[in-house]
Amino acid sequence: MGDAADSGGGVETMADGLPTQAGGGGFDMGGFSPAGASSIAALGLSAFSSITKGKATKAADDFQASKAERAAEFGKLQAGLTGAVMQEQLDTTMSNIEVIRSAARVDQSSPTTAAILAHEKMVGDRSRNAALLNINSQVAEDEASARYLRKAGDYAVSQSYLDAGIKIGGAVAKAFI
Known about the structure:
This protein is mostly helical. The protein has helices spanning 34-103, 111-175; strands at 5-6, 12-13, 19-20. Strand 2 and strand 3 (19-20) form a beta hairpin.
């Protein structure tokens, strides 16, 4: 680069022919600076990154929620099958007691037979209820987890938009200060 020279038209040029502001300092870009453009680009990328992070978190939470929902559905199926199988086992036990008592020529309406049958029914019902309670508790937990994860994913997305807005708002505020 050389010395600034007046080309006669009122615009100063450098020795290489590029125009310059009067008094030197380089080409006038009308208030635009490369540093400003890079700041705007960085701001845009930062805001985009915040939103993308929120959407990725939501996708991960939705995936985990789907897993929990499938586990809950399986648990419901398992509870139904467990209840049916345990009821069949109880019915078989009750029938076996009746057959044994009958083979021994014991009256089916005797108080002892009624007590034995009532006791076996109580034990069988209690066992079935305990098993179903455990399964249904897990189902309820899986359903609650799925609801929580879906809400957490929605919250992550809303917070990502809020974060992006704060970044942009902060940059705009700094531009006017």
